[in-house]
């Protein structure tokens, strides 16, 4: 990208996505704690727990991609 200002803005916006990703993980962890019973850590609702595990997996993929993008953008910016 030729325009350094545009690249800087893209980096700033991607960092905001990264911050949001962190917030999403925190919320998901809170939900998982609510779904787990105190009885040997078993899920209170297996089906619902499975859906949140799928969501967690997809969020982890998004976090990895966001991290990779930030790394690539930073290399181009410097």
Write the topology of this structure.
Blueprint: H1 4-35, H2 46-77
Helix pairs in contact: 1-2
Q: What number is the mean pLDDT?
A: 90
Oligomer: single chain
Helix content: over 70%
Largest sheet: none
Q: Quote the beta fraction.
A: under 5%
| Number of discrete helical segments | 2
Shape: rod-shaped
Tally of distinct domains = 1
Structural class from helices and strands?
mainly alpha
Distance between the termini: 12 Å
Low-confidence stretches: none
Helix and strand run: HH
> Any idea what the radius of gyration is?
17 Å
Total number of strands: 0
Please describe what this structure looks like.
The protein is an all-alpha fold. The protein has one domain. The protein has 2 helices and no strands. Helix 1 runs antiparallel to helix 2. The mean pLDDT is 90.
Summarize the model shown.
This protein has helices spanning 4-35, 46-77. It is mainly α and 78 residues long.
Which key terms come to mind for this protein?
0% strand; 2 helices; 78 residues; mainly alpha
């Amino acid at each position: 990208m030729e325009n350094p200002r545009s690249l800087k803005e893209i980096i700033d916006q991607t960092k905001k996505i990264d911050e949001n990703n962190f917030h999403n993980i925190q919320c998901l962890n809170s939900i998982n704690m609510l779904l787990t019973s105190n009885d040997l850590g078993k899920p209170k609702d297996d089906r619902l727990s499975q859906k949140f595990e799928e969501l967690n997996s997809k969020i982890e993929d998004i976090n990895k991609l966001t991290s990779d993008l930030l790394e690539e953008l930073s290399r181009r910016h410097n």
